Amino acid sequence: MKHDVTPEIQKDEAAWKAQLGPERYRILREAGTEPPFSGNLLNVHDDGTFVCGACGQTLFTSDAKFDSGSGWPSFTHAEQQHNVRLLDDDSHGMHRIEVRCAHCDSHLGHVFDDGPGPSGTRYCINSRSLDFVPR
Ligand SMILES: [Zn+2]
Description:
12% of the residues lie in helices and 30% in strands. The protein is α+β, with helices and mostly antiparallel strands.
């Protein structure tokens, strides 16, 4: 794992664990992945904002959300590009781009280039990495 920048929000792992509970901790702090079609935000189509489940930073908006069929909440773009951090991830024998919250360095998901918009970007994000704030 690379740590080339210092996140604004830093806590020790015991504090994260206490705050997040075991399931969200595994995904947000240990780069876990929730099973597809298991997340509570997959079928949320209301207007609102998707914020980091660990620090509350705004990450995505409902305008960018689309149904990719993958089983995970999918977005064409981040609300502000500087609020997400992209890292090379060569785990599991493949090359992917990991997406993290730029403010607390928590794992969100991965980004792929097979999205529907002009940019072709598909952010594939765990429900458990996000909280939804209705507008
Ligand atoms: Zn965060």
